[in-house]
């Protein structure tokens, strides 16, 4: 199987599984506990059916939208994800390059493997995902570095003050950086291309935090250990408001799932909320973002931008989210599989396929622009109009 044989996210997932050692693949692929929320994130989209309008004269579909002060050519952008260097040696460089080519935004994680300074040189709109560390100086330093390097928006992640129970990591021996264990040795040996690229190219590093924190950058430790030892647990709405004021630019709160929390985001002056459960990697048994979207849009739609993050695998998923009230969507696995499968070439093909799906399906829906999508174009499976 080759990149050119991949036509959808499931194809890229299969190719990524072939090319990655088991501990690395299952870190991307896995979720918390029984992974019921992980699976629900995508399955939720099947509970609502699109209802197209015909004879509208829609010949072209304008996918552009404005998110966090940035004009994007797609209503879908790259969600920030950690440690991309593990999945392919190009890492975040591939994501930044494709975002620039396609006119969309890319997110950068605090635990990214390319520095704020390097990624800041890319012209594509940039969102930095920040956590509140126990070391307040580190958090303040990250914000200042983002400002100095022309990042366009900041997203405070609020749903990972402790790490979820990611049992696949235990079963397959995932650590950062990778180390050989009885569980992982054979898998690394059976994937020599990945192993040689990892060993012979740039050394794994978390440059945004490694000069402050040794854990997770220069010694072997799990992501769970990093989150559990370095993140401040007692963050509050006052902390979020203070960070928004300190940043002073477009500001999102990532990990919002309740109507009450969405309203609080409006109260503190946030620009956007990112409706997300961390890809099903934190609280298993929690609701899927798409399931919560209608209630949140009813409560705060028009007062704040709403970004749907989680479970997107198809262009129709994006259309359903926009019809239900989202301003835009973001996703992680939809491009991480492609990155693992083929670096920038894989990511480019994956995003081109999703763009083509959205354009084609918008025309089939009878819509000339994303603004024309609305809740009358969705029906639940029980026949109720949303």
Structure, described:
- The protein is α/β, with parallel strands linked by helices and 386 residues long.
- The protein has a single domain (3-380), classed as Alpha-Beta Barrel (TIM Barrel).
- Helices cover 41% and strands 12% of the residues.
- The protein has an eight-stranded parallel beta sheet.
- α4 runs parallel beside α15 (333-365).
Using brief descriptors, characterize the structure shown.
386 residues, TIM Barrel, 8-stranded parallel β-sheet, two-stranded antiparallel ribbon
Itemize the secondary structure elements and their pairings.
Layout: H1 9-19, H2 22-29, H3 36-43, E1 48-50, E2 65-67, E3 70-72, E4 76-78, H4 92-102, E5 106-109, H5 116-119, E6 126-130, H6 136-148, E7 153-157, H7 167-172, H8 185-189, H9 192-200, H10 223-230, H11 237-247, E8 251-256, H12 259-267, E9 272-275, H13 289-300, E10 305-309, H14 315-323, E11 328-331, H15 333-365, E12 378-380
Parallel strand pairs: 4-11, 5-6, 6-7, 7-8, 8-9, 9-10, 10-11
Antiparallel strand pairs: 1-12, 2-3
Helix pairs in contact: 1-15, 4-15, 12-13, 14-15
């Amino acid at each position: 199987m080759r990149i050119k044989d991949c036509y959808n996210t499931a194809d890229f997932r299969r190719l990524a599984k072939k090319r990655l050692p088991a501990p690395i693949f299952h870190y991307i692929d896995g979720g918390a506990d029984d992974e019921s929320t992980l699976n629900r994130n995508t399955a939720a989209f099947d509970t609502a059916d699109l209802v197209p309008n015909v004879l509208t004269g829609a010949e072209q579909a304008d996918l552009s939208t404005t998110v966090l002060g940035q004009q994007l050519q797609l209503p879908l952008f790259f969600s920030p994800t950690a440690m991309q260097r593990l999945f392919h040696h190009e890492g975040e460089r591939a994501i930044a390059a494709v975002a620039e080519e396609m006119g969309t935004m890319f997110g950068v994680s605090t635990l990214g493997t390319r520095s704020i300074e390097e990624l800041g040189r890319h012209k594509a709109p940039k969102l930095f995902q920040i956590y509140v560390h126990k070391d307040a100086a580190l958090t303040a330093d990250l914000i200042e570095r983002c400002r100095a390097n022309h990042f366009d928006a900041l997203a405070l992640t609020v749903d990972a003050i402790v790490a979820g129970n990611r049992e696949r990591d235990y079963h397959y021996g995932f650590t950062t950086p990778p180390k050989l264990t009885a569980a992982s040795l054979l898998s690394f040996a059976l994937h020599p291309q990945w192993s040689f690229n990892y060993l012979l190219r740039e050394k794994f590093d978390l440059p945004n935090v490694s000069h402050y924190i040794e854990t997770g950058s220069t010694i072997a430790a799990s992501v769970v250990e990093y989150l559990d030892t370095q993140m401040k647990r007692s963050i509050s709405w006052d902390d979020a408001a203070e960070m928004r004021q300190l940043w002073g630019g477009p500001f999102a709160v990532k990990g919002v799932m309740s109507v009450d929390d969405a309203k609080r985001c409006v109260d503190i002056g946030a620009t956007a909320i990112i409706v997300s459960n961390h890809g099903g990697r934190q609280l298993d048994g929690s609701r899927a973002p798409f399931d919560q979207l209608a209630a949140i849009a009813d409560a705060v739609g028009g007062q704040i931008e709403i970004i749907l993050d989680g479970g997107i695998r198809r262009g129709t998923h994006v259309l359903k989210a926009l019809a239900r009230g989202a301003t835009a969507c973001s996703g992680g696995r939809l491009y991480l599989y492609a990155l693992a499968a083929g670096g920038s070439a894989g990511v480019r093909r994956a995003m081109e396929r999703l763009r083509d799906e959205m354009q084609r399906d918008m025309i089939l829906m009878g819509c000339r622009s994303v603004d024309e999508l609305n809740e009358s174009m969705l029906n639940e499976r029980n026949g109720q109009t949303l």
